[in-house]
Automatic annotation (TrEMBL), chain A:
Belongs to the binding-protein-dependent transport system permease family. Gene3D superfamilies: MetI-like. Pfam families: BPD_transp_1, BPD_transp_1_N. It comes from the Bacteria. It is found in: Cell membrane. CDD domains: TM_PBP2. The keyword Transmembrane applies. The chain crosses the membrane at residues 9-29, 105-128, 140-165, 194-213, 252-274, 294-320. It comes from Desulfomonile tiedjei. InterPro entries: BPD_transp_1_N (IPR045621), MetI-like (IPR000515), MetI-like_sf (IPR035906). Residues 101-317 form the ABC transmembrane type-1 domain. This is ABC transporter permease.
UniProtKB/TrEMBL annotation, chain B:
SUPFAM superfamilies: P-loop containing nucleoside triphosphate hydrolases. This is ABC transporter ATP-binding protein. NCBIfam families: oligo_HPY. One of its GO terms (molecular function) is ATP binding. Belongs to the ABC transporter superfamily. Gene3D superfamilies: P-loop containing nucleotide triphosphate hydrolases (3.40.50.300). InterPro entries: AAA+_ATPase, ABC_Ni/Peptide_Import, ABC_transporter-like_ATP-bd, ABC_transporter-like_CS, Oligopep_ABC_C, P-loop_NTPase.
Length: 332, 337, 368
């Protein structure tokens, strides 16, 4: 088991390097750089451009150096926790990231928990009572959940609650807590708003999950060990939950990590519609204005989240499945 | 003398979209204490369904539609009471108490018969603790004990092994251990050796016989392998198309078979003294369509002895006794007699 | 119950395609999905003819008009051929919202085969015949109009043409890439497999929306729409090929150990022939299923990007572009018909999912 973990950690390193290079490359794609955008903005608003200021900015951000040097500089700083400086916001990127990233992670984790809590019982019921009308109804609802993209769901929900309930559900905090320091009350307020993006982003995933669990469980229910358990005298409910469900869940454990990119993606776009203070809207703005350090760091961090997440879920799977943990046979 | 298990005119039907399949169509037999009954038949004859019916674990869409299954169940006072298992609801506490304790079952695929995610020890202990109030440590001791009895080496270590860490033969032994830990009076063995290679087969059969002696239990052994049946049974039931064709003590059946089907089966087994290059004997034809009801003999058309006599095909007939403990269901014999 | 010997005969002799079709027909939802998709693609192909107006025609006096009510009974209680009432614009003093009042004495019957806006049918014929419409000066807006007075029904039809075509094109590209890389990876294994697998893993680590945002923000705003269309399709398929590649790789790895491959090798077949003639046909059905299920994610991806403003841009009209104009909550609250493209998107995605599921069940003989 230890060897397995060490091996995965070692593979992670070139992956992370590649990710950093791709992130950097993407930032460089738009023609020009931050300065050209800045100058364009200034000229549009009618302000004059100061040559000296431009030069000092160039120097400060190393924009006159060749590309690979810029990359190395950026990567080196990144490793040391210096994520650079945001041109647009004029703050260190680390501060901005610190404000937004934890929220993204929180919503992701809550969504994962929500998905499992909802999908598991429904999936199990669907498989055990196959072809009942409840199964059909749930499958249909599941399909609709799958088919409705997050942001459209958010849009419709926004409209519905505004038009018919007179509520405005955007944002993560009520106005009075928005800039206040963290207190228990603020936390509670956040929870009241948190369930909305969690439900919106979670629905699509829950639908997919239900179908996978249903499929896996249907396969397992046909297997001999279920019959053995029944022949021992176990009650139906107990034996279903203890044996085939456990086996059916296993393959899903390792997919927890891989759902992270989709989750982050879904959260990003939902956040834009609902105006949530997560990384998505900030990233969009940074990309549009070519705020290199901010955009690059975000892309890098979000991808790293996935890499770490997959590692954790693979470890979880190895821990939970004895066939992986004790690979070799004792051979009697 | 009353029997330990008596099955009377059991009928199990499967209701499919295409029609009704009469998987078991009027089967009767009895099992006595300490004796083995072998149930032999080809694939699709319904023999497994008989075993499943006794424990009421016939899979959907199967249903017991008629008949009685009378079990002499031990009640607490050292006495036995007769209980008709057909009348007991399959998911009730009564039935669940019987499963594993009074009647236990072992199955064909030891590979997949254990949950891959739990140790065999925990699964064996579960079988024990479902039916008796022992402490976990006491249960573990008993599990190690029974693993030793079935011939598993180093049982105190292997009790914590996972199924995939054991070989096929070991897993089958473990399954036997799990079935016997509550000392059931009847063990139903549904093709337990079919998936094993021949040498292990012999070991398992010897083990079963030895345990039968030691625990004084009865065995209902279901197989399509005549050799295995001959080895382990005291009495044999020949089943075809859901019906009993012949029932006899084992040596009588093999030496003086009365039913044409039994005779054809025995003919098709190559013997060690069969001359070289003799073509293998077969039974021509195939099973009749299971959706169509046949009032007469289902072996009609494949039988060498009826000579196309329509009496065999159309006339219903009964299982008839032709000798002490020898019964046959053949229209030619029954209707004539 | 007797089995019909003739039917049994037909069943035993049927080709694979027929067997699949018969199994597929049994699925109610899958058939519904199939009909829906045929309908959607039909309307996409013939959208100029089916739509009463051009997508950009502005009706200045009917800005933010609600969907027209089709009636059969006029204000005197008489039954008539289906018609709409003429409407007059009015402004609600309280909310500043635009309202329309129906004039019961102005009747515009709905006609078929109407002469309306001129268009080029597939860029070839010049004609102005539309399936239905009302004679001037009447207007018929089945889905209402937007803030520039453009007919939403027509725009939805034109929009789904773009969205559906991007779906198809994107999937074709993804399929090509997936087959290529999955094929190499699965068939040859070894180092090439290792490299391709790492690359796929790395691509999968990136959250898709931020990645698309990045690639798409790289497009200069002054590019011509057609170029944008193709680049967006390219971007979407560049991310989507990984799933197909993994599926192809998995299947090939399992199949290449099969004996029929060995037999082909010993008979002297080269790698190319083995892959195309022997291996691929055995899982064509799985490819079709995966592709069918991939189309909706392409359509959703384009919709998401255009909705955010970094995808397609006017004058190209896709369902996503239509929805971009429905971003403002207060506007939607006043004029909810602007959300109708959502129904189109959901219907399209649902239909493809039903069809894909039905295909998957029909094609796998062991699934039931």
């Amino acid at each position: 088991m230890l060897a397995y973990v060490v091996r995965r950690l070692l593979i992670m390193i070139p992956t992370l390097i590649a990710i950093s290079m791709i992130s950097f490359a993407i930032i460089q794609l738009p023609p020009g750089d931050f300065l050209t955008t800045y100058v364009a903005q200034l000229s549009v608003s009618g302000e004059a451009v100061d040559e000296a200021e431009l030069d000092s900015l160039k120097n400060r951000f190393g924009l006159d150096k060749p590309i690979y040097e810029q990359y190395v500089l950026w990567a080196w700083n990144f490793l040391h926790g210096d994520f650079g400086h945001s041109f647009e916001w004029n703050k260190p990127v680390a501060t901005l990231v610190g404000e937004r990233l934890p929220l993204t992670i929180l919503i992701s984790v809550c969504t994962i928990i929500f998905t499992w809590l909802v999908a598991l019982p429904i999936g199990i019921y669907s498989a055990v009572r196959q072809y009942s009308w409840v199964d059909y109804v749930l499958t249909l609802i599941g399909f609709i959940g799958l088919a409705t993209p997050n942001f459209l769901f958010a849009l419709v929900l926004l409209w519905f609650s505004y038009a018919y309930l007179g509520m405005s559900i955007g944002g993560l905090f009520s106005p009075e807590f928005a800039d206040a320091p963290w207190t228990a009350a603020k936390f509670l307020d956040m929870l009241k708003h948190l369930w909305i993006p969690v439900v919106i982003v979670g629905t699509g995933h829950t639908a997919k999950f239900i179908r996978i669990i249903r499929g896996n469980l249907l396969d397992e229910l046909r297997k001999p060990y279920v019959v053995t358990a029944r022949a021992k005298g176990l009650s139906e409910t107990k034996l279903i939950l203890k044996y085939p469900v456990r086996v059916a869940i296993n393959p899903l454990v390792s997919t927890i990590g891989w759902t992270l990119p989709e989750l982050v993606s879904g959260i990003a776009i939902t956040a834009i519609v609902l105006n949530l203070p997560t990384s998505g809207p900030l990233l969009l703005g940074a990309l549009m204005s070519q705020d290199m350090h901010l955009a690059g760091s975000f892309l890098m961090l979000l991808s790293m989240l996935t890499v770490v997440g997959t590692l954790l879920s693979d470890i979880l799977l190895a821990w939970v499945d004895p066939r992986i943990r004790f690979g070799t046979r004792e051979g009697v | 003398m009353s029997h330990l298990l008596e099955v009377d005119n059991l009928k199990v039907h499967f209701l499919l979209d295409e029609g009704t399949v009469r998987a078991v169509d009027g089967v009767s037999f009895a099992v006595d204490k300490g004796k083995s009954l072998g149930i032999v038949g080809e694939s699709g004859s319904g023999k497994s369904v008989i075993g499943q019916s006794i424990l009421r674990i016939v899979p959907q869409p199967g249903k017991i539609v008629d008949g009685k299954i009378l079990l002499a169940k031990a009640n607490g006072n050292g006495d036995s009471e007769l209980i008709d298992l057909v009348q007991v609801p399959p998911h009730s506490r009564v039935m669940r108490a019987i499963r594993g304790r009074d009647v236990a079952m072992i199955f064909q695929e030891p590979m997949n018969s254990f949950s891959p995610l739990h140790t065999i020890g925990s699964q064996i202990i579960e079988a024990l603790r479902l039916h008796s109030d022992v402490s976990p440590s006491e249960a573990r001791e008993q599990a190690v004990e029974i693993l030793a009895k079935v011939g598993i080496p180093r049982p105190q270590y292997l009790v914590d092994a996972y199924p995939h860490q054991l070989s096929g033969g070991m897993r089958q032994r473990a399954m036997i251990a799990m079935a016997l830990i509550c000392r059931p009076r009847i063990l139903i063995a549904d093709e337990p050796t079919t998936a094993l290679d021949v040498t292990i087969q012999a070991q398992i059969l010897d083990l079963l016989k030895q345990l039968q002696q030691e625990f004084g239990m009865s065995i209902l052994f279901i197989s399509h392998n005549l050799g295995v049946i001959a080895d382990i049974s005291d009495d044999v039931l020949v089943v075809y198309f859901g019906r009993v064709m012949e029932r006899a003590p084992v040596d009588v059946l093999f030496k003086e078979p009365a039913h044409p089907y039994t005779k054809a089966l025995l003919r098709s087994v190559p013997g060690i003294d069969t001359p070289v290059r003799t073509p293998l004997a077969t039974i021509e034809g195939t099973l009749p369509n299971p959706l169509v009801e046949i009032p007469g003999c289902p072996f009609f058309g494949r039988c060498h002895e009826c000579g196309g006599d329509s009496v065999c095909r159309d006339q219903p007939y009964e299982l008839t006794q032709i000798d002490e403990r020898h019964y046959v269901a053949c229209p030619r014999i029954c209707i004539r007699t | 119950m007797k089995t019909d010997p003739q039917k049994e005969e037909r069943y035993l002799n049927a080709s694979t395609r027929q067997l699949v079709w018969w199994a597929y027909k049994k699925h109610f939802l899958a058939m519904v999905g199939l009909i829906a998709i045929c309908g959607l693609y039909f309307s996409a192909i013939f959208c100029e003819f089916l739509a009463p107006y051009d997508k950009d025609t502005r009706h200045f006096e009917h800005v933010y008009a609600p969907p027209s009510k089709i009636r059969v009974i006029d204000h005197e209680g008489r039954w008539r051929w289906p018609f709409v009432f003429g409407t007059v614009m009015d402004i609600d003093m309280e909310t500043q919202a635009i309202r329309y009042v129906e004039c019961p004495d102005i009747v515009h019957p709905i006609e078929l085969w109407v002469r309306g806006d001129t268009y080029y049918f597939w860029g070839l014929w010049r004609t102005n015949i539309h399936l239905f419409g009302v004679p001037k000066p009447g207007k018929i807006f089945l889905f209402g109009t937007d803030r520039m007075g453009r007919d939403m029904f027509s725009r939805c039809l034109y929009g789904s043409r773009i969205s559906l075509s991007i779906g198809m094109l994107g999937v074709m590209l993804s399929l090509g890439l997936g087959l290529l890389f999955g094929g190499i990876s699965g068939y040859f294994g070894g180092i090439s497999d290792g490299i391709i697998q790492r690359v796929i893993e790395i691509i999968r680590c990136f959250p898709s929306i931020p990645l698309w945002m990045g690639l798409s923000a790289a497009m200069p705003p002054h590019w011509p729409s057609l170029k944008v269309y193709f680049v967006i399709t390219l971007i979407i398929s560049l991310i989507g090929w990984t799933d197909l590649a993994r599926m192809v790789r998995g299947k090939l790895m399992a199949l290449r150990e099969e004996e029929f491959v060995l037999a082909a090798r010993f008979a002297g077949a080269g790698h190319f022939r083995i892959i195309f003639r022997h291996l691929l046909p055995s899982f064509t059905s799985h490819i079709i299923v995966t592709v069918t299920l991939a189309i909706p994610s392409m359509i959703l991806a384009e919709t998401a990007l255009s909705f955010l403003g970094i995808g397609l841009r006017p004058p190209i009209t896709s369902l996503g572009v239509l929805l971009k104009e429905a971003q403002n909550v207060t506007t939607i609250a006043l004029y909810p018909w602007l959300l109708i493209p959502v129904a189109f998107v959901i219907a399209t995605v649902l239909a493809f999912n039903f069809v894909g599921d039905g295909l998957r069940d029909a094609v796998d003989p062991y699934s039931r």
